[in-house]
Amino acid sequence: MKILYFAWLREKVGVAQEELTVPAQVRTVGDLALWLGQRSAGHAAAFANAKLVRCAINQEFAGVETPIAGAAEIAFFPPVTGG
Amino acid sequence: MRRVLVQAQAFDPGAELARLGDAATGGIASFIGIVRVGHSEARRVRALVLEHYPGMTEKALEKLAEEAQARWVLTGCTVIHRMGRLLPGEAIVFVAAASAHRGAALQAVGFLIDGLKTNAPFWKAEEFEDGTREWVAARAEDEDAASAWKV
């Protein structure tokens, strides 16, 4: 599964993307955020405040409860600030 | 006509408006966002750096423009958003809608710019005169403005 990071999440994690094999018990976006948060000190800092983290599955916004099964690309990023 | 662009280079608002005008169009409404220097004298903004999610951004903007065309009878609709490093005074975003009637054009522009603020994956970082850089935090008002349209 391809995981992408943007803006300050990318800076805290230290990479823009990583290819990971996610364990079967990690079922939802929320589960994945918790699991990723344990990967390194950088990941922990990026995912420390769940309220500031948004997600997209296959380039569509996804909520915390959204299942991740079958997803090719999952992105984590701060609330958007365009315009 | 639907025109959606994400680009680093500047756009020409006059040329964009001209594209939307034809005999079927009664009027064109538009909004242009400009990079501000900021409020604080001590920390003036030197530049704005825009990051986005290539692929998802284009899809999100297309979807928003499509939605505007489904809600209002428009003869055309344009959304252009810039990315990369922009200086104060530069235009960052352009939204325009053309219709036989002003109401539809004006409302569609409001919908597009409010929707864009919360639905398109862009992130701004402010670069200050003192050399420091900070990510801009999202504003709750933007969320409220977008939800008023039930996007």
Overview of the molecule:
Chain A has a 5-stranded mixed sheet. Chain A contains 3 helices and 5 strands; from the N terminus they run βαβααβββ. Chain A has helices at residues 7-13, 29-36, 41-46; strands spanning 2-5, 17-19, 54-57, 60-62, 73-77. In chain A, a hairpin with a 2-residue loop joins strand 3 and strand 4. Chain A has 83 residues and is of the alpha+beta class. The N and C termini of chain A lie far apart (31 Å). Chain B is α+β, with helices and mostly antiparallel strands. Helices cover 34% and strands 34% of the residues of chain B. Chain B is built from 4 helices and 8 strands; from the N terminus they run E-H-E-E-H-E-E-E-H-E-E-H. A 4-stranded mixed sheet of chain B has the order 1-4-6-2, sandwiched between helices. Chain B has a 4-stranded antiparallel sheet with strand order 5-3-7-8, with no helix packed on it. In chain B, helix 3 (102-119) packs across helix 4 (140-148). The longest helix of chain B has 18 residues, at 102-119. The radius of gyration of chain B is 16 Å and the shape is globular. Chain B starts with a strand and ends with a helix. Classes of the chains: A alpha+beta (83), B alpha+beta (151).
Give a brief outline of the structure.
The complex is a heterodimer of chains A (83) and B (151). Helices cover 25% and strands 23% of the residues of chain A.
Question: How are the strands ordered across the major sheet of chain A?
Answer: 2-1-5-3-4
Rg of chain A (C-alpha, Å): 12 Å
Number of domains of chain B: 1
Order of helices and strands of chain A: EHEHHEEE
Distance N to C terminus of chain A: 31 Å
Mean pLDDT of chain A: 96
Give the beta-strand count of chain B: 8
Mean of pLDDT of chain B: 93
CATH topology of chain A: Ubiquitin-like (UB roll)
| Binned strand content of chain A | 15-25%
> CATH superfamily assignment of chain B?
Molybdopterin biosynthesis MoaE subunit
Net shape of chain B: globular
* Poorly predicted ranges of chain A: none
CATH fold title of chain B:
Aldehyde Oxidoreductase, domain 3
Number of helices, counting only DSSP H or I runs of 4 residues or more of chain B: 4
Q: Class of chain B in CATH?
A: Alpha Beta
